[in-house]
Amino acid sequence: MTRSRRRVITIIGILLVVAGVLTFMERRRRAAEHHLGGGKGKTETKTSPASPSPPTTGTETTSLPDASLAVFFSDTYANDPSVGQADPNNIDRHLATLLGTARATIDGAFYELESERIADALIAAKQRGVKIRLVADSDYEKNPEMQKVLAAGIPVIFDGRSALMHNKFAIIDGATIWTGSYNVTDNCAFRNNNNGLMIRSEELAENYTTEFKEMFVGNSFGARSPSETPHTQVKVGSATIYNYFAPEDDIPPKLTRYLSIAKKSIHFMAFNFTDGTIAEAMIEKKNSGIQVEGVIERRGAERSVMGQLQSAGISVLKDGNKYVMHHKVIIIDGEWTITGSYNFTGSAATQNDENILIIRDPAVAKQFEEEYQRIKKMAEEPA
Q1: Which of 20, 142, 239, 243 is the most buried (most CB within 10 A)?
Q2: Mean pLDDT of successive 10-residue stretches along the chain, which has 383 residues
Q3: pLDDT at 44
Q4: What dotted CATH number matches 69-222+230-236?
Q5: Are the CB atoms for 125 and 132 separated by under 8 Å?
Q6: Do domains 69-222+230-236 and 251-380 have the same CATH topology?
Q7: DSSP 81-105
Q8: What is the DSSP secondary structure assignment for residue 181, as one 8-state letter?
Q9: CA nearest 365: which of 331, 327, 329?
Q10: CATH for 251-380, among 3.20.20.70, 3.90.1150.10, 3.30.870.10, 3.40.50.2300?
Q11: What CA–CA distance (Å, rounded) separates 245 from 167?
């Protein structure tokens, strides 16, 4: 072989190596852009990262809305669990599908994990290489589904105390959050009235990640949890969202402040409502001519503020679900929606780990108002 021929072969070899390196770097760049949401810079994707692809494994076929904020409800209006089980758009299927889109990380704070569908979605995500971390309430450590998740090698931190780790949220790939009243259980999916919200916002995800790390890394629960929410006000599409965590962010004064701005109406759905301060704020608005009405979960209604509100002339009904009406929702003027894991109680305010969203968006309020009217109808015509 001549010297010139060896030189040509050497040059070709070098070019092939360089081409291989460039191809590898391009794949890494595209993967990074895909993870961030279509290749936009961080400041552009904060409030509406690109919609993730549908899952490529598992049996879930539910399609997620291509929206920066979506609201879901459990299909429990027939008082028949088989209806929700057969509904492809039921709340549990949407969460399972969202978990199926995760490419890098899932951090979840689940008060109770007792849904085989959600447990399987978490395990499937781990098997495809997603890093998963969970926080849960100690009371439910022995649930079969929780034991199944632990056996799969998913790390779980339990709160180890009598007060509740009452959150029901998940953060997917640091860009999308799921929260609401829905515990990841079959009861909450098929029997109990619940809501869930999927919000694509890196700022909200940073808030929830900060709260999650306090519990998972810092083992700080309840009153020991520091108040360090990075973004208490976030813009997501047409919605302005205020985001707080209990007990560190002192929720009751914030709720009474938002109630005080009501000009037309206050409608509420409450699983547990014992906070007299919030009740007094509603009574004050009723006395100023504002329409105030609501529905309270039947079990424990006698120990709630129901009598206090009714004595002031406020219409309050016991719910008509033969199982549980589990919402924690206030709708103000058809414009503002208050929702999350936070029951309107003293323990939620001072002891439990909770999260709450206060959303200014008539489109969101309309969806919750429609749910309120369904719940009200069930209360007026109980099964």
Answers
A1: 243
A2: 56 52 41 33 30 39 91 97 97 98 98 98 98 98 98 98 98 98 98 98 98 97 91 97 97 97 98 98 98 97 97 98 98 98 98 98 98 97 79
A3: 26
A4: 3.30.870.10
A5: yes
A6: yes
A7: HHHHHH-TTSHHHHHHHHHHT-SSE
A8: S
A9: 331
A10: 3.30.870.10
A11: 9
Q: How far is the C-alpha of 277 from the C-alpha of 120, rounded, in Å?
A: 42
Sign of CA dihedral 337, 343, 348, 352: negative
Residue 1 corresponds to which tokens in the numbers above? Answer: 């072989």
Residue reference for tokens 């890196």: 202
Q: Are 332 and 265 in contact (CB under 8 A)?
A: yes
Q: Which of 276, 283, 278, 269 has the alpha carbon at shortest distance from 313?
A: 283
| CA gap 170, 185 in Å, rounded | 15
Amino acid occupying residue 270: A
pLDDT value, residue 359: 98
Amino acid identity, position 233: Q
Which secondary structure element, helix H or strand E, spans residue 354, and what is its range? strand 354-360
